[in-house]
Design brief:
This protein has 16 helices and eleven strands. By secondary structure, it is an alpha/beta fold. The protein folds into two domains: about 70 residues; about 300 residues, 3-Layer(aba) Sandwich (Rossmann fold). About 5% of the residues have low confidence.
């Protein structure tokens, strides 16, 4: 079948109307016209070779013109020759975007992990607005916000629209609106699973949703499975033997084993949804304390026989390996040691379900008679960019949203901290 008009919709085919039916009947394609000798095509289609040669030359010229148009439009958008923009959702801060490899990419399940008060929800609220912007800052789509704790703060969204340095300068037709932000609350694990499996896919397709936010992924799991008597068994991968913990903690560990299949199922569902619908799925996660080998050794263990030794080298244990994928175990030496003893909730099982993890780290410093919090954002792992160096990019939470702290201000804060330590 001759597909010239399909490949080149603007091609002027009037001059060749007398031979196109014959070419179509002989199943001559555009590729044949530019790669097969004219006399062979003429023989197959029973048309004059000179007419086929003229058509072939015209097709080659039209393809060259089309390529030049594409190159010019690409250069006008600010991209170098051959470079195409990657669709992403911007944080609307150039420094943070640079640290994230341009922004958050669709087609992935991305976790934002951090302790309470570090700014996870503030980060997510900015994404709910920026996804509505056209490329390269957004995906020109709607956002769906699923809350497992507090309801969506529309007051804060309105404040961001008025005070954010980027959003506040946009004209009314360009500015994001709350009408394009859908929200729903899931008070328990059962309703969360029902909404995700049956309502979310329909909303994504009908409302052109390009960003799905779950804030937070761990809340309903912890409420459903955790027990007050859990004690030190919170970390799924604790190395304490079941013989050394009380029965109440063993029950807690059984509940953790029961939730693993659910974590795997919800992870597989979210990955499939992100891939098939080409949307970004961003989930916030809480963090909890973890215990080092020193902490674990304080528990009473049965005496080991003199001839036994650990079959696993220290470098291959979870305690050693998890620092490279939790976001807290490999912080620089000058960061207080207690910050390294943190880990995202839901353990290794959930870590295996996500495409990327972004850690938000907070350090509270005492300066004289007052406390000041410093915050950093860092990429732990992501398929589109390298992990962050050291602690990442320092940021602050303002009325206009999340903004990076200048290097001068960061250096001044470090000097003040060093001075207070010496005092």
């Amino acid at each position: 079948m001759c597909d010239i008009l399909h490949v080149l919709p603007d091609f002027q085919s009037v001059s060749y109307g007398h031979i196109l039916p014959s070419l179509d009947k002989a199943s001559i394609s555009t590729i044949d016209l530019i790669s097969v000798p004219s006399h062979d095509i003429a023989k197959r289609a029973q048309v004059p070779p000179a007419e086929v040669a003229k058509l072939s030359d015209a097709v080659v010229q039209a393809i060259q013109i089309d390529i030049e148009k594409t190159k010019r439009s690409t250069l006008e958008l600010g991209f170098s020759d051959g470079e195409q923009p990657e669709p992403c959702i911007s944080t609307l801060d150039a420094n943070i975007d640079a640290s994230l490899g341009g922004g958050l990419r669709p087609g992935h399940v991305i976790e934002i992990a951090g302790e309470s008060g570090v700014g996870k929800t503030q980060f997510l609220l900015t994404l709910l607005l920026s996804v509505q912007l056209p490329s390269p800052r957004g995906l020109d789509g709607c956002a769906l916000y699923i809350s497992t704790e507090a309801a969506l703060s529309t007051t804060r969204l309105n404040q961001l629209l008025k005070m954010h340095p980027v959003l506040s300068t946009l004209s009314a037709p360009q500015k994001p609106t709350l009408d394009r932000v859908l929200s729903i609350q899931t008070p328990d694990l059962e309703s969360q699973e029902h909404i995700l499996r049956y309502q979310v896919p329909v909303a994504v397709r009908r409302r052109r949703v390009r960003l799905l936010v779950i804030d937070s992924i761990a809340a309903n799991f912890r409420a459903e499975f955790d027990r007050p008597s859990q004690g030190t068994a919170e970390n799924d991968e604790s190395r304490i033997s079941s013989q050394s913990v009380p029965p109440s903690d063993r029950r807690s560990r059984r509940s953790m084993a029961e939730r693993r299949p659910q974590l795997v199922q919800i992870g597989a569902f979210l990955r499939n949804l992100a891939s098939t619908e080409n949307i970004a799925i961003v989930v916030s996660n809480q963090i909890t304390d973890r215990f080092s080998a020193t902490n674990v050794s304080t528990f009473s263990h049965p005496p080991a026989s003199s001839g036994t030794s650990s079959a696993t080298p220290d470098s291959l244990t979870l305690d050693k390996q998890q620092r490279w994928f939790t976001g807290w175990g490999d912080l620089p030496a000058h960061i207080p040691g207690h910050l390294n003893l943190k880990t995202p909730c839901l353990g290794l099982t959930w870590t295996n379900q996500i495409s990327a993890r972004i850690a938000l780290i907070k350090e509270t410093q005492v300066l004289g008679d007052r406390e000041k919090s410093r915050r950093w954002i860092r990429v732990v792992f992501a398929p589109w960019t390298a992990p962050s160096l050291e602690q990442g990019v320092e940021y602050d939470i303002t009325a206009g949203g999340i903004a990076t702290v200048s290097k001068e201000a960061s250096r001044t804060a470090e000097l003040r901290t060093d001075g207070s330590k010496h005092e």
